[in-house]
Structure formats: C-alpha cells, structure tokens
C-alpha cells in the first residue's frame, strides 16, 4: 500500500529531546507527507539519528504545552502497531536471531516487527504472497533461502529494506543505509532506492553522504547542533556554498547521472 502526497505521515511542532542531561534536539518543527522523498543531511552528531528515534518512539520529547507529535495523523500509538507501519532500515547489522533466519522469513518478520519467526506467530498465505512480491521488488529472490548471516552486507541491506516494506504504509525511513557497504553494493542500493521512489514509495533518507541522495529526492533538510537550519528544495540547498556552511569545511560538488558527489 503506497501513501499519497495528500496524506500526512509526520507532524512535529516545537519538539525538544534530551538524552541524559543534554538537550540534543532543539525546537524541531517538521511536516512530511506520505509519499514524499526527503533527505536529512548533516554532520555526525547533529541529531539526525535522534530525530529518527523520536519518530519511532525510542526517544520521547520533553513535555511542554506547545509540543506536538503526530504520526500517520495520530498522537497516541500502541508501539507494536506503530513499528509494523514504520518501515525503518537502520545502519546497524541485523540482530543475532535475524542472522539465523532465511531471507524470506526475515522479510516476513516485518509483518510482526519481530527479530525472527517465533513459533507463536501466525503467517497467513496473504503474508507469504506479499513477501514474495517484495522480495522480487528488492531483487532478493535469488538469495531468499540463504541465512541472513551468510549474506553479503549488500544482500542483508536488501533483505532489511524488504522487511521494512512489507508492513509499512508506503514510507521508508533509512538511517545511513550505505554504511558498511562496498562500492558495488552502494551502487546497487542507490539503484534500488531510485526504483522504489519511482514506484511511489515515500523515502526519508538520513545521511551525511551526498552521493546517497537519489535524483528522485527533491526536498532537503539540513541539521546541525540538534537544530534544523534549512528545509527546502534540493536545487537550492545542495550547492557547494550551502554544504560548505553545513559541514564547516570547503566542499566541492559535481553531478553525474542525477547524483551529486562531494569532496
């Protein structure tokens, strides 16, 4: 099921988040429609991953009267239900249980937001059919019977994207997805993200690698020191001048096949 550009996916107003004694997100105001393609860009430690954890309710905003958090139009969620609908792909490797699971079963776990197919979980025929469709969508059918722990990092990332897609409401949240991938796997991942975007899947991509941003992403959010410092069209923000300011170093920029590359 794909979202449309008219459905709200995320609404944050005046969100502040503390981790321990430190406030790490400051007055975050953000609205994202389902089906949008957006990249969140910033240096390490700028608050990008904390923002994702706030969306997935792993971190909670400080309680203040003006603070609002709505996900898929709702302010309150059963966390198990929300996890099934949020298609999150983290930079971390799959957990120990998932590594012992076949690719096909790992994708099916996305219906339950579980680490493996535990005996108490009931898998329906409809789930299996949809999982096959998703495996084909992410080009993972040829290694679907392989254990996740025996796969290359690139194959694992495809399976994790498939897992995120089966239960999600047409939105993928990707946190530094090219980490630990070699050059060939990075190229495959970027091609996959392009196809998913073209098919109507919404994408929220968190990265500090400019080359990860596919041409289909048209909105850029820039973060630094726990604040959103810019939110606008890619053409305006992905410039050498704006990137140099964001990363506080001189950045050179070039473009090839719709992708921008920085050094």
Automatic annotation (TrEMBL):
The ABC transporter domain, residue ranges: 10-250
One Gene Ontology term of the molecular function aspect: ATP binding
Domain of life: Bacteria
InterPro entries: AAA+_ATPase, ABC_transporter-like_ATP-bd, ABC_transporter-like_CS, Metal_Ion_Import_ABC, P-loop_NTPase
Pfam families named in the record: ABC_tran (PF00005)
Entry keyword Transmembrane helix: no
Protein keywords: ATP-binding, Nucleotide-binding, Transport
Family: Belongs to the ABC transporter superfamily.
PANTHER family in UniProt: IRON TRANSPORT SYSTEM ATP-BINDING PROTEIN HI_0361-RELATED (PTHR42734:SF5), METAL TRANSPORT SYSTEM ATP-BINDING PROTEIN TM_0124-RELATED (PTHR42734)
Name of the featured protein: ATP-binding cassette domain-containing protein
Organism field: Tunturiibacter psychrotolerans
Lineage: Bacteria, Pseudomonadati, Acidobacteriota, Terriglobia, Terriglobales
């Amino acid at each position: 099921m794909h979202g449309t550009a008219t459905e709200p996916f995320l609404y944050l107003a005046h969100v502040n988040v503390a981790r321990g004694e430190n406030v790490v997100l400051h007055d975050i105001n953000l609205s994202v429609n389902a089906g949008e393609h957006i990249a969140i860009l910033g240096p390490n430690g700028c608050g990008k991953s904390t923002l994702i954890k706030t969306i997935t309710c792993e971190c909670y905003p400080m309680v203040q009267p003006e603070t609002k958090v709505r996900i898929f139009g709702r302010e309150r969620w059963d966390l198990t239900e929300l996890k099934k609908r949020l298609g999150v792909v983290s930079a971390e490797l799959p957990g120990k249980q998932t590594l012992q699971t076949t690719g096909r079963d790992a994708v099916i776990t996305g219906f339950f937001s579980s680490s493996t197919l535990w005996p108490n979980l009931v898998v329906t025929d409809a789930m299996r059919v949809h999982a096959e469709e998703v495996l084909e969508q992410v080009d993972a059918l040829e290694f679907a019977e392989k254990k996740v722990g025996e796969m290359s990092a690139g194959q694992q990332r495809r399976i994790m994207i498939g897992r995120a897609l089966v239960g999600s409401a047409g939105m993928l949240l990707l946190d530094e997805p090219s980490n630990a991938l070699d050059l060939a796997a990075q190229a495959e991942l970027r091609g996959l993200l392009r196809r998913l975007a073209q098919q109507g899947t919404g994408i929220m991509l968190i990265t500090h690698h400019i080359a990860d941003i596919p041409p289909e992403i048209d909105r850029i959010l820039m973060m630094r020191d726990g604040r959103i410092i810019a939110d606008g069209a890619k053409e305006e923000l992905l410039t050498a001048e704006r990137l140099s300011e964001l990363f506080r170093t001189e950045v050179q920029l070039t473009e090839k096949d719709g992708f921008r590359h920085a050094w």
